[in-house]
Amino acid sequence: MKNIVIFASGNGSNAQNIAEFFATRQDARIAKIFCNKKNAYVFERAKNLGIPSRLITKEEFDSDAFVRELRETPADLIVLAGFLWLVPARLVQAFPGRIVNIHPALLPKFGGKGMYGDNVHQAVIAAGETQSGITIHLIDEHYDKGRTLFQARCSVEPQDTPETLAQKVHALEYRHFPEEIANYLQTL
Ligand code: GAR
């Protein structure tokens, strides 16, 4: 049984979806959820799912003690599910090829600092794109730059708003993210 650790920053609907997917499986479980935002709804979800969760501060996020904590868990895979901080080099180097992110657009377009949640969907619509989607990728020390593992697409219609596009993208996330995590875990 492998351990997945989730980092989230807000609502946590992907975190919950991933946890529910693995709840009935023997290959992996969600060992812990870390969140950098006090009062984020993901804490409520973690409690309901019976998964330990904890707030992390910026200082401890980039510390050897945090690397030790993750190694002791042990974290076989770290999954960023709506997590908005850049992961420090210390962590990337401690878990090479073991940190996966989901981005709500088709990278390399619409990535980088500040590109999260509805900002991304707004930018996609403003650019007149006819397609958007999701990118599941390994992370390195730069925002949204690591190796792509998987992409899925949806159409962007002229009448789409950031809200309706977000719904389409979320649907792709819920459908594919847990499965792709399971596939990637098998290669480790
Ligand atoms: C998701 O759409 C995820 O792709 C996005 O934040 C949302 C979190 O929703 N992530 C990013 O924008 C990262 N740059 P959730 O908290 O309900 O899972």
User: What overall form do the CA principal axes indicate?
Assistant: globular
The end-to-end span amounts to 13 Å
* Count of alpha and pi helical runs: 7
Q: What is the gyration radius calculated from CA atoms?
A: 16 Å
Mean pLDDT: 95
Assembly status: single chain
**What fraction, in percent, of the residue positions are helical?**
25-40%
Q: How are the strands ordered across the major sheet?
A: 3-2-1-4-5-6-7
Low-confidence stretches: none
CATH class: Alpha Beta
Name every ligand kind in the structure. glycinamide ribonucleotide
H and E order: EHEHEHHEHEHEEH
Number of domains: 1
Label the CATH architecture: 3-Layer(aba) Sandwich
CATH homologous superfamily heading: Formyl transferase, N-terminal domain
By helix and strand content, what is the structural category?
A: alpha/beta
